[in-house]
Amino acid sequence: MNHLTRFSTLFVLLIAILATSIYADAVPGSVNHLAPMMEDEAYGALLKHIFDGGDTDGAISLYEALEAHMESADYDQWLKDAALARASLIVAKDLSESDMKGEASQYMENADSIIAGLRDEGAPESTVGVLEALSFSFWYLVDGSISKAMKFPKMVDNLYKEHPEDFHVLLLSADRYLHSPGIVGGNIAKGRDMFLEAEKVMDENGAAEWDRFTVYSGIAYGYDRTKKHEQAVPYAELAASIYTADATVNEILEK
């Protein structure tokens, strides 16, 4: 190993150690690696179409528009690809719910292909981990893969243990507790309380509208399932002001 190579290796290790030290002391959820995309109109348009109950043809067209948009967007390449991977997962879920299993599998495979290259592009480990966990969860919805579904809770638990500072790890962990069966560690009250912590973080640091929806709908569901309906309603109303077609949110508002 020559002196330049040795210096480069030591420099990278030093940066990694410093980053680990900084994040270890960070408030849970206080680091948002996807913050540069908070106002991205193309990404927001796709999610709004899907979560407002739009048709699958429109979802596919908007995904293709997002791909074109990302070609010239002024983001780091890993961030562009992370956004496309997550969007592809969301489109796959939407297609699966419309009984378009073959097309859904294609979008899942597309997402997995993108995710596989993110580390080489310099994506944060926590961001890659969130997408990998989501892929395992969504594959269960698309093709019924029990083996992947069973690995999901442990993947999320490890992510939160290693990267509690990441806002999206906090959201994923809150959702995992909120919706997982008790036999694999589900805990509705704990999930609700984690979403309440996420609300404090996003009120201080800002958040994309799609993340606000996740937080508000999660709190609403958590309150409703713990027999606190009056506290659930204001959060359900906040969620419905962002996206209109969520069945759980609408059910709370109809009670």
3D architecture notes:
This protein is mostly helical and 255 residues long. The chain has helices at residues 3-24, 41-51, 56-72, 77-97, 101-116, 125-143, 146-162, 167-179, 188-205, 209-225, 229-240, 247-254. The protein is globular.
Average pLDDT for all residues: 91
- Evaluate the radius of gyration: 19 Å
Structural class: mainly alpha
Order of helices and strands: HHHHHHHHHHHH
- Total count of strands: 0
- Percent strand equals under 5%
Enumerate the spans where pLDDT stays under 50 for 5 or more consecutive residues.
1-24
User: Given the structure, what is the number of helices?
Assistant: 12
Fraction of residues in H or I helices: over 70%
Instruction: Characterize the main sheet.
Output: none
Principal-axis shape? globular
CA-CA gap between termini: 69 Å
